Amino acid sequence: MGEYLGCSGCRHRDSKGLTCKAFPKSIPLQIISGEIHHTKRLRWQDNDIVYEPIEIKVPVKV
């Protein structure tokens, strides 16, 4: 896994940034604030989804 960028760099975050696949109702403040790095499943989570960096595909110039 690359550098942890928090919710802003996670592929699971929705377009509004307030929910994600891991927390469909609301991302906890501790995660949004960076207090907790969501790289491992949290015991109070309802699923096993954790931070995965957004893959940026850079076109190759030929």
Q: What does this molecule look like?
A:
This protein is largely without helices or strands and 62 residues long. Helix content is 6%, strand content 0%. It has one domain. The chain contains one helix and no strands. The model has no long low-confidence stretch (mean pLDDT 90).
Radius of gyration: 13 Å
Uncertain regions spanning at least 5 consecutive residues: none
* Distinct helical segment count: 1
How would you state the average pLDDT, rounded?
90
Strand tally: 0
Percent range of helical residues: under 10%
Q: How far apart are the first and last residues' alpha carbons, in Å?
A: 28 Å
Main sheet summary: none
| Apparent shape | elongated
- The total domain count is 1
Q: How much of the residues is beta strand, in percent? A: under 5%
Please provide the ordered H/E string of secondary-structure elements. Answer: H
Q: Which structural category do the helix and sheet elements fall into?
A: little secondary structure
